[in-house]
Each structure stands twice: as structure tokens, then as C-alpha cells.
Amino acid sequence: QICLSLVKLLFYLAHSPLGSIVLLDFQPRQFVMVDGNLKVTDMDDASTEELSCKEDNDCTLDFPTKSFLLKCSVVGKCEGINEKKNLFNAYRYFFTYLLPHSAPPALRPFLSDILNATGDLRYGINETLKAFEKVLHLYKSGLYLQKRPLHLKDYIPLKGFRTVEGEDYKCWPSYSHLGCLLSVHSAEEAAAICNSQSQCQSFIVTQQRTWTGRPLASFQSGPTDLIPDANAVVYIKRSASSGERL
């Protein structure tokens, strides 16, 4: 969410009515999340000036660990230097820390491609935004789940009940510090996650939603402490269920 919001902001800066705007003091502290969107808190160090040049050698974009040689345009300006400076700063301050983590395994190769392409400045802001929107579409639609074995058959659905909220085993990246609360596309994906965790014996897909509209599923080490709830369904692993426990 943070990276996508940042890319949308940089897309606007690259195509602003004033021209391509560069953030000269590009630091994480210069940004803040407001209603799920990343915003710049200080525009004092923003500029629309693009480096003048006579030849390509005049258009070196230097960073502490990397340098890039850009093209000198026919009007004597370094092509896209403001856009590319913003994008590489986004890569080194945000993408490298946030993109490799917490995505479903099937989507990680797509995020690695974005990471590598922006780190080498092979992508401009247009291509970067398009790549992010593709990953978001796959994530929201659940298309990344194709060709996976069915796991929900390993669970007994108990309708009309939910589990009591409380501290349970932890997992990463959980939305709750008390237990294992993860974003899923469906009960089928939740079943696959539960099967992959040795502690998990049951789960419930909650009414809570993430910023993408995906529900949150709560995974637990046992199906005990069930309470009536007409709108809920508890999924209990068949190997964990018994007449006595139910």
C-alpha cells in the first residue's frame, strides 16, 4: 500500500502541470500517510529545474552506491532526470525495505521484477505504475491462486459459531500482535495457510477487510471456546476434530 501510493505520487510529480518535479530532500521523514495515501509534508525542496547539458556525459545521475548516465535531449536538458532521481530514491528508501516482505509467495517474483527494474532504472515511472497495478489486480482478484491444490476439503465447517478472540500463537506478518491474523482472498486460501502452519488447527474468516477489500482470517491452535454467531463459520481441521471437542 505504501509503495503503490508513493508510485502514484511520483507519477503525478512526473506529469504535473508545472513540469517534472524532483524532490531534492527525498527522505522517509518527508512523507506521511493520510487516509491510506502517502503525502509529501514539505515541498520547500521541490524543483522543476532539469539539468542542462551539451552531451550525454553531462547527464550523470550520482547516488552513494550507483551512478547512471542519461541522455542529453535536443533542447539541451538531461532527459527524465527529475523523474529518475525520484524513482531511484523510492527504490532505495522504500522498495528495498518493503517490497520483498509479506506478499503471497506467488506474487513475489513480480515484486522482485519491479525491485530490480527500478534499481537499475530500466523502468520509468509509467512502467513502474503499470507493473504495480498489475500486481494489485492479481492480488485483489485472487488470480495468483490458480493451479493450486484444494485444501478446504481438509476442514469441517461449523456454521453459526465463531471463536472467542484472545491471545494465541503468533505468525508473520500478522495484523494483530495477539495472534495470527492474515489477509486472504477466500476460505480456500485460508485453508492453505493453515495447512502450512504446524500450530494451526482451525480458522475463521472475519468480517474485517483490508484496504484492498480482502477479508482477514484468524488462525488458531484449537477450535475451543466457540460462541454462537449466526453470520460466522469456523473451519476446523479434520485431524483436530473429535466428537468430544465439538
Automatic annotation (TrEMBL):
Every copy of the FAM69 protein-kinase domain together lies at: 2-116
Q: Which UniProt keywords apply?
A: Kinase, Signal, Transferase
Task: Provide GO CC annotations from the record.
Answer: extracellular region
Q: Can you provide one Gene Ontology molecular function annotated for this UniProt record? A: non-membrane spanning protein tyrosine kinase activity
**One Pfam assignment:** PIP49_C
Q: Which GO terms describe its biological process?
A: skeletal system development
- Domain of life, per the record? Eukaryota
Q: Where is the signal peptide?
A: 1-19
According to UniProt, the name of this protein is PKDCC kinase
| Species this protein is from | Calonectris borealis (Cory's shearwater)
